[in-house]
């Protein structure tokens, strides 16, 4: 799947996604990680039906949606809900909480009883009095819980969670992550979990896909990828995850093992030739990296896009 955008004024084409192929099996949690600008949110919005791919195919429940009439496509996308990064901005400020939570059901032609909505709020740990409040009267953590209640209201098969805890305090992050984990285990809902925080992804996800400049550069089960990363970019990301147990003074970062990447990611409208990562790679092996784009190759732990593994 690929997605391009045109830059206003210049007409330049920006390739936000370049041949991304990803499957979310039923009942699993699949992570998508990478730096800002890597294409994570673009992919999330395509899966949720908010954007269309420029090329490639999107299948929902085994059915391709390209070329389908709008009504048919919306019906197929009904079992998919999204949790956005900014919880407050994702809620209609004019509607009380109970109406926000009921929106997915109302869109399906179902008018839920108030008690059903209160039950959803209770499930995410919110008291009944919250039902009549508005988003501006809630804390960030409460807003995110309302967004989660709204997402699970229609009993979705897939929840696309786009940085669902990055805007929250660390203590609230833990509560929200445990809540999402409980929902997955209780209902069997699948998750596409988008994040730049590898520690969060390692905790929540079964599989992880590492995205760099619109391409997947590594894929595998979460524990294997973080314990033994096979792509230099993943290796650098994993080295930045604090592990307090390894540091005698409890500072949470072993500086001797930290891999610092030089420079900024290339501009999407001007990707470098060869391997997209070679301009920042600490394991570059020569002209082949500069000139030849590597394929996604199998490894002992999954797949990686690197000439070192060829």
TrEMBL record:
Residues 2-238 form the ABC transporter domain. Keywords: ATP-binding, Nucleotide-binding, Transport. The keyword Membrane does not apply. This is ABC transporter ATP-binding protein. PROSITE patterns: ABC_TRANSPORTER_1 (PS00211), ABC_TRANSPORTER_2 (PS50893). SMART domains: AAA (SM00382). GO terms for molecular function: ATP binding; ATP hydrolysis activity. Gene3D superfamilies: P-loop containing nucleotide triphosphate hydrolases (3.40.50.300). GO terms for biological process: peptide transport; transmembrane transport. Residues 244-275 are annotated as: Disordered. It holds the Pfam family oligo_HPY. Belongs to the ABC transporter superfamily.
